[in-house]
Amino acid sequence: MIKRRLGDIIEIKHGYAFDGDHIITEDNGIVLVTPGNFKIGGGFKEEKCKFFNGQIPDSYVLQEGDYIVTMTDLSKTIDTLGYSAKIPCNSKRMYLHNQRIGLIVFKDEDVCREYIYYVMQTHDYQKSIANTSTGATVHHTSPTKICDYRFYLPEYTVQKKVAEILTSYDTLIENSQKQIKLLEEAAQRIYKEWFVDLRFPGYEDVDLVDGVPEGWSKELIGNVIGKVSRTKQIKTADYLLEGSIPIIDQSRDFIAGYTNDSEALVNTGTPVIVFGDHTRILKYIQFPFAKGADGTQLIISDRTNMPQSLLYLSLIAVDLSNYHYARHFKYLKAESILIPSQDVADEFDRLISPILSQIQKLREKCYELSQARDRLLPKLMSGEIEV
Fold this sequence. Notes:
Layout: E1 2-5, E2 10-13, E3 23-24, E4 30-32, E5 50-52, E6 61-62, E7 67-70, E8 72-73, E9 84-86, E10 94-96, E11 101-106, H1 113-119, H2 123-131, E12 139-140, H3 143-147, E13 150-153, H4 156-196, E14 208-209, E15 212-213, E16 217-220, E17 225-226, E18 245-248, E19 257-259, E20 265-266, E21 272-276, E22 282-285, E23 289-291, E24 296-301, H5 308-316, H6 329-333, E25 336-339, H7 342-382
Parallel strand pairs: 4-10, 18-23
Antiparallel strand pairs: 1-13, 2-11, 3-5, 4-5, 6-10, 7-9, 7-11, 8-12, 14-15, 16-25, 17-24, 18-19, 20-23, 21-22, 21-24
Helix pairs in contact: 4-7
C-alpha cells in the first residue's frame, strides 16, 4: 500500500450562505443541509431537518449520491466534525449545499469513491480533523486541513471489495430504517382515521355529542398521566459509548448513550413515553433504560381506556410548535385529547402494539448492523482483515 494525501484525490467546495430569514421548520421538501444532518460516525441523518423557502442558486443544489463533509461541530466532544455523508435518494426532497458543508469533488478517477467515503469515517481520520480544529464552543475545520490528511491506499481491486462490504451493511441499515418509517406512518394513519376522522370500528352506530362520540370524553393530558418512580438521572458528560443500560434523553438520537449505573434504571414493566421538554421529541420506549440529561420527561397513562400505544399517538398529534424555545411539558399537559370507550381503546391497542413492537425489533436490527459495520470498518481499512 502507498500513502496518499486526501488533497491529491479530492477537493472540497464550500457551500452557500443561505438567507437565515427564510430558514423554516415546516417540511416544504427543500432541505437546507446542516451539520445536524451528519450522524456520529458518518452518514446522512434525515430526521428533524431544517428547510428553506427563499431564492436558491442553481449551483448549490446537491444531487443524489453527492458526497459531503461537515466542517462545523457544536458538540463539546467534537464527535461529527469532518465526517462524510452521502445525499440520499428521495424524490420528494431537494437538498441545498449550505455553508460549512463541503461538497467532495473527485480529481483522481482511478480511486474508488466509496472507499474514500469510508476513509472519511475512520476513527484515525476524524480524530486528526478534531485535533486540528479551531474554536472554543463551536469547532471548525477547513478544506485545507481535511485535504492534508494522509492514509494508506491499497490497490483498486481491494478498495472496491472493502467498499462493497461496508456498503452492504449500510444498505441493510437503510432498508430497515425505511421499514420503520413506513410502519410509523401506518400507525399514524390508523390513529387519524379513528380519532380525528372518527371512523373507528362501529362508528355508524354511535351518536356524536358536541363532536365527541357517545361514551367517550375529552380531557386534559395532565389529567390522564401518572407518575414514574424517580431514578438517578445521568448527566450528558457521563454518557458512555457502550454499557449495560441504554440512556434515553430528549435528543434526536433514539439511544443517546449508555451507562452501567443500576441506580438509574427505569423498568416499569410497560412501555414508557419519553417527551423532550425543550425539543418536543417523543419516543416510545419498550425496554429498561436510564433517564438522560435535564428536560427528559417520562410519561405513562393512568387510565385503562388510554393505553400507552394510544397515548403515544395522541401526543404525536398535539402541535406545540407555536411555543418555540420553552419548557413545553406544561403546555403539553394543558392540551386536550379524546379518551375512547374501553372496547375501542382495547381494539386500538391490539392493532397498534404489534406495529410498535415491530418498529422496536427493526431498531434493534439497525443497532446490531451498525455495531458490526463499525467493528469491521477499521479492520478492513487497515488491512487487518484481508479481502
